[in-house]
Amino acid sequence: MTVRGAPAPQLYQPALYWEDRARQFAVEGKGLAAVCAYGMPEFYNRAIHLEQRMALEPWLKIRPEARVLDVGCGVGRWSRLLAARGARVTGIDLSPTMIAQARLRALAANVADRCQFFVKDLSTLDIREHYDLVLGVTVLQHILDPKSFRAAVAALAAHLAPGGRMVLLEAAPRGQVERCDSTIFSARPREVYLSMFRQCGLEVHALTGVDAAPFRTLLLPYVRTLPSALSRALLWFTTVLSLPINMILGRRAVNQSWHAVFVLRQKLSSNIHGC
User: Fold this and answer.
1) How far apart are CA 138 and CA 141, in angstroms?
2) Cys-Cys with 101: which of 75, 138, 161, 235 at CB 3.0–4.6 Å?
């Protein structure tokens, strides 16, 4: 693993990219280098996971036997959490290796009987079931093709049960910020998401922040150009500096956050087919 992460490919083929990423990092430790920041150091990805967990926690309280759809489930970190709380979880991911790891980790956590995992593409998803909670963590930000992005949001809406909630955590700054964009990632302006949700028959129930501290996102575009020792030192410093700010202010400082948590519900008179 390189301290400066794995470079984005010139040609992004999602299924091949995510399978390659999974084969390199999904079996390491908690698999965070495969599902958080690709190939970055463990301390960096643990901080990201902790910040995501803090931001999501209010919306992951579920009743026993709730039906959950975990899209882009990766190695199943959220699926296992929700299954341990009594949910019946369906996880999907593009990568067969991710899905294999999700099954193995669910078995090791004694929640395999409450989880099922499938290799599926969100953009063409049609499980023909409806879920009380639809969860996606940093999934849409990697779907760059406009038609696939629209199809993915429509698929999410189509699988949400009446009265259910959708929780999405995505890179969604207040305005156009392209400094971290690559061939596999786009920090779409927040209004782009909000507009697409409206078009697909979804309304915002809550909108909260994740990572108000700007230090890591300011550093990331340059970290691969720096000497390895300097990169590690700067990553460590910005992580230590960011973590307490994000844990204290993250959810409340939504306008300053790079990522956002969208909590969505179906409109009472929604017409998702119009999306």
Assistant:
1) 6
2) 75
CATH topology of domain 14-266: Rossmann fold (3.40.50)
Q: What is the mean pLDDT of each run of 10 residues along the chain (275 residues)?
A: 59 94 94 90 94 97 96 98 98 98 98 98 95 98 97 98 97 88 93 98 97 91 86 93 94 95 87 57
Cβ-in-10-Å burial (0-12, 13-18, 19+) of 258 comes to buried
Q: Which residue in this structure is represented by tokens 């294999």? A: 100
Q: Which residues pair with 70 in a beta bridge?
A: 91, 135
Report d(CA 246, CA 232) in Å as an integer: 20
- Find, among 17, 42, 14, 43, the residue nearest to 28 by Cα: 42
DSSP letter at 169?
Answer: E
The pTM score is 0.93
Amino acid (1-letter code) at residue 269: S
Cβ neighbours for 212, distance < 8 A, ≥ 6 positions apart:
245, 246, 249, 250, 253, 256, 257
Find, among 249, 136, 119, the residue nearest to 197 by Cα: 136
Of 20, 35, 122, which is closest to residue 71 (Cα–Cα)? 122
